[in-house]
Write a structure and sequence with these properties.
The complex is a heterodimer of chains A (about 450) and B (about 425). By secondary structure, chain A is of the alpha/beta class. Chain A is built from 16 helices and 14 strands. In chain A, the strands form three sheets. Chain A has a seven-stranded mixed beta sheet, sandwiched between helices. In chain A, strands 4-3-2-5-6 form a five-stranded parallel beta sheet, with helices on both faces. Chain A has a two-stranded antiparallel sheet with strand order 1-14. In chain A, strand 12, helix 16 and strand 13 form a beta-alpha-beta unit. Chain B is about 35% helix and about 15% strand. Classes of the chains: A alpha/beta (about 450), B alpha/beta (about 425). At the A-B interface, helix 14 of A face helix 3, strand 13 and strand 14 of B.
Chain lengths: ~450, ~425
Amino acid sequence: MNLPNYFIADLPPEATISAQLVADACQTLKRNRERQLGAYTTPGIVRVLAELGDNWLQPDYPFRQFALARGPAETGFSVATLAAGLDALFGQWSRENLHALLVQELGHVQRLDEPCATPEEQRAGRQSLVTGPEMLAHITAGNLPSPTLFSIALGLLVRSAQFVKCARGASFLPRLFAHSLYELDPRLASCLEIAEWRGGDESLEDALFAEADCVTATGSDETLASIRRRLPARTRFLGYGHRVSFGYVGKELLVGFSAKKAAARAAADVAAWNQLGCLSPHIIYVESGGSVSPELFAELLAAELAKREETEPRGELHIEIAATIRARRDFYEVRAAGVTDTRLWCSENSTAWTVVFEDDPRFQASCLHRFIYVKAVQNLDEVLQGADAVRGRVSTVALAADETRAKEMAIILARWGVTRVCPLGRMQQPPLLWHHDGRPALADLVTWTDWEMG
Amino acid sequence: MKPSSIFESYAARLRDFIRRHSPADGSVAADEGEFNALALDLFGLHYAHNPAYRALCHARKQLPLDVSNWREIPAVPTVAFKEMEMTVLCPDERTAEFHSSGTTGDEPGRHFHCDASLAIYEASLLPWFQAHVLPETLDGPAGFTFVALTPPPSLAPHSSLAHMFDTVRRRFAAEQSIFTGEPAPEAGWRVNHEETLRRLREAAAHGLPVVLLGTAFNFVHLLDRMTDEGVSLTLPAGSRVMETGGYKGRSRELPRPELHALIAARLGIARDFIVCEYGMSELSSQAYDTVAGIARESQLGARESISKPRSSRGNEAQISGKSEPPHVGCYGSESGSRNFRFPPWARAQIISPETGDEVGDGEAGLVRVLDLANVASAVTLQTEDLAVRRGDGFELLGRSTDAEPRGCSLMSL
């Protein structure tokens, strides 16, 4: 597949991107938005997005085929991991889901098109419509593509011109996605730009920030603070900081087949996008007192990860990351040789997967790439005490517990600051309607105009 | 050492091996069989008398009976020196302990020594140091003033580097040699700049060549201060630097070529007189990346030329080297001219972090060192340093700065 030179990210690697180029691109995007997007209604854009999502699910879709053919070399994910990740993402892009998202966030499907009213608004004699930003800039993280692609979809729904700044080495899938949009609907794609440069290039980013009226960014607290500092006061900023996630297995499920099933689900969460997302688990906490002990659960998880590796291999790693994993394994191997409450299971002749069991409830950040801790705990309280250091920075907690307990735990977790509770095995498959970091998706982007009809 | 006679007999064989393979003695190629026998014997001793090591071997199911080649000897990760007492010495036998220079707040790795193991340590370090930093002295004594930028051992009793510098000072240095480093509560060590500069100027005035020894961060401290004050020296011909890597957050970090360009600019010591050392507290032998002055020697064809005074023009040429792109000249990664090499009584392997197997020539991996002089702890050490295998040596890899971190939840907690 030969991609035409359409986006900045299509430029050959040796080409230098200048601040002027960024500014010019933004001007062009705004002009195109002015000329093109007026003709679109929300149902029209939803139709395009749903069709595009459906295309990406088709095995013979050339863009998908290209993504899977070149993806392993470009992204480090194996074909199977990529395919699973794309399916999880685009499987959500149905018309029904997009409609539901509009209703959830804006109260009405047509809120972006014309003044309209919910029954409550009707009674109050009021109609409202919302307007998206003219120019939306996204500063995306380099780990996995799905949040970037979803952000683009949101930007299209609110009719913004969009400039997507990818991290170095992370533009492959966003770029491919943009080309797939261009093929399906070139007018919509003319309001989208994809570029890649090393984060923190202030001259390029300042040129971008000067043009944008809304900036979204994913990154470390320092990155977000630095971006926020550099934005003009009137620019809306939506920052998504680093988050961690973990799983929790209740003792009632730690019997026979349920335990094995829970281990398989935990393995799916570890394998999805190679554990690189904020929603991927660092730790699976396992309650003591079930007929399968936490240590045995760790062994089951190791077996499941070994099985996963056969069907959905992790793929190759940069040597420095492999060295980090090796060093961490060494550490736990040494510890396991000295103490009995630490154990280590890992893939042979590769760093493909690692399970560390510890009888210590303190939160421990994993080095990821399918390196998972299993920690024995008495109860959820013990987990939350041990995770105090990351309180406020926990995104997802995946539960394997019976329903009554799950509800109680969800309440406790919510009050503690967790923003998403999901079943084990679904951590990297947030529904389209989810609240990223506890915030609305579309509603944060738009500005309301209330019309009080008197 | 518990059954001291057993270790004594090993130590005697090792000393003999070192003596026969020292560069001063013509450096004959090591006999593979003899090396292997020594390595396996030391492995057996460590297995028998170092309980922590034995536990590791058991965990890996690698026992002496199963090992017939030195390459198969279980390697101890450096982290084991933090987590365990990786030693054959009972507490009452330990007379010295060297600590790894971890980042602040970390538990340091501890390498215990007794007088006998320290004596081996010194017997190992001296000939290889001499061959690389002071090759002229192989032909007979020469008067060098040593200035070590670390604190002296009395103020840094747990620094293997200070001990090493003191060992080479006692052996090779003129009387006026000195340590100009001081322990600093926050930064670990700091260099006494006034004293260092005074000593260097004094040596310059007397025309005495200087051997300046220190860590990379020692040099950055010194050179930054010299830059701030606008001070430049041209040290007497034959002066040289031995620099050993590692910053651990104690100064700004400079890529090696930049550091060496700065040394050339501020101290007038050309790159071919800057020798890099690779060593660590957990080892008893060191690797060096060049022989002082050897580039010039091969250029001019005679050892005598080393001591010829350089013209100021020559210095300018060196200083202008600052603008050279990295990885050229003596850093030529293809030429292999500045690759680290251990002495014949220690061997480095470069191990793939992915597979655990030795990599091919030109490939990158983790440095693993078998050190026959590591008598009191473990014979094979697995480091966390990445390097490219180059022939019988290796080229250390700096931290890659190009890759942006992946994994949005990878944060320091």
